[in-house]
Amino acid sequence: MTVSLKDVAERAGVSVKTVSNVVNAFPHVTPATRARVQQALDELGYRPNLTARHLRKGRTGLIALAIPELGNPYFAELAGAVIDAAARHEYTVLLDHTQGRREQEIQVCRGFTARVMDGLILSPLELEPEDLAARTDGAPLVLLGERRYDLPFDHIAIDNIAAARAAVRHLLSLGRRRIAFLGARQNRTHQPAHLRLLGWQAELAAWGVPVDEALVAHTDGWDHEDGSAGMARLLDLGQLPDAVFAYNDLIAIGAMRVLFERGLRVPEDIAVVGFDDITEARYGAVTLTTIAPDKQAIARLAVESVVGRLKSAQSDAAPLPSRELQPGFRLMERESTLGRRSG
What we know:
Blueprint: H1 5-12, H2 16-23, H3 31-44, H4 50-56, E1 62-67, H5 73-87, E2 92-97, H6 102-111, E3 119-122, H7 129-133, E4 141-144, E5 154-156, H8 160-173, E6 179-184, H9 192-206, E7 216-218, H10 224-236, E8 243-246, H11 249-261, E9 271-275, E10 289-293, H12 295-313, E11 324-325, E12 329-332, H13 335-338
Parallel strand pairs: 1-2, 1-3, 3-4, 4-5, 5-11, 6-7, 6-8, 8-9, 9-10
Antiparallel strand pairs: 10-12
């Protein structure tokens, strides 16, 4: 049976109002009374009715999260972080994936309404500015990813150019000079692959290393097989790099498989750096050096942005200005560039 505030109040010997104050973390309760109420809550197994609580505030209690691909470990890990961050604000996350297709991104952007969710966190790949400008839903929208739309929506993204430069700088500091970029995309200048390519070019130039376009391998996607195919093409064309900077970890892991099959050693013959720091990067036969975006910060900022705008809309305060938020990243140095350490 459902445990009510009245049941808890009777067990603790206090008023229903006092129990409510404890449940809602109001400060004006003595420590002794709070402890007694909390003990009663725990003994009776009380769980707050979040649906009713949100309805009293005119909300649904749902935040929608739309990502390009749920099967991609980076987005799966990010989704988990968003779900955890939303739970801390007593929100449930409604999850969808767009497969990186413009028509599906438009459908998500326009299809969800404030009647079924309180806000939308969207990671678009192909959405155009006019698609967003046509949005009429008043629910808060937060954009993730590298493309900037110059529209009044909060946008959260790491500095991809700086992150790529950090990866290439690491390889250059190890004495590598023929550094391939694996995972460029044709005619996708607004996607993260292009920004990471720019970072690759900029850091090579800063070290006085000529940019060899023959070392740029394009891929159709961002999975293991794309990395394998791209690495094989480079080798078949006779372009033997001494290092590879991959668009993401999946491409890097696919590339390392081909290097192993061709009898090349990582990192002795070719060092490899990825991007995303997915779990798989830490547990391969050769652990992967990679750029680790702060996924927890991305998730926290996205949820806080939605919640903050909801609170602002219910107050008399002026509307919050749109913001560009930039979480950090780290270079995780592992065996694919440093080799296996003895002892």
